[in-house]
Amino acid sequence: MHQEAIPYHEGNHQPAPEFSPQARAVAQVVSYITHPLFIPTLVTFLVLQSLPEYFVAFKMSSKRFAFDMLYFRVVIISLFFPLLTVMLAKMLGFISSIYLNTQRDRIIPYVAIIIYYFWAFYTFLEEGAAPRFYTAFFLGMFLAISISFVTNSFWKTSMHATGWGGVIGFLLSLMWGMHMNVSLPLIITFFVAGIVGTCRMILKAHTPAEIYIGFSIGIITQLASCWMLVV
Questions:
Q1: Inside any domain, residue 2
Q2: Structural domain of residue 91, as residue ranges?
Q3: What per-residue confidence (pLDDT) applies to 211?
Q4: Is 10 helix (H, G, I), strand (E, B) or coil?
Q5: Could you report the per-residue pLDDT of 1-23, keeping only the tens digit for each?
Q6: How far is Cα 202 from Cα 18, in angstroms, rounded to an integer?
């Protein structure tokens, strides 16, 4: 679901700087590695490694290795289903490219992902086995994608920035709502988010404004979710 590079112009309508092929190649690789579809699995891995005591119920239901069923569930909902949706939409001619170059191409994936994240949030909430901060993360992702879907009518909001803004907001939520010391992960995430935003601009996939809007949506929705479910 990567977006192809498109030229943009800022303020004085001067062309954006051109970068070397090597820089663009590195930016392309970084964009793939840090794709927002991987973020729920990454966050799940990190919280399970750092706070396993909050997920005892999931460990007890493991089959082959610790928390395997939870990993399977997250990967299916947040990675497999969205990718399958995009592939099917391309095969049926509903979108022009799997890279979702245009705002129109993003409509079907946005709607599908909104449904998937709401499903994840609702099932975690109803089961009650997951800690509230983890359930709040999926609520935040659902809200972020929903808002991005609305803003998609006006801007091609950066999905990468929204995703990594969500990670920043999630860590801030742990600090605020759970009083956890996450200073080091927060610093690292800010650094990664800065690299991701820079790479998206090197590829001319987004304007700076679209990057900032994405970060803002991701951070605010996670904080709002923490306020609703945790605080």
A1: no
A2: 19-229
A3: 96
A4: strand
A5: 444 444 444 444 455 567 888 99
A6: 8
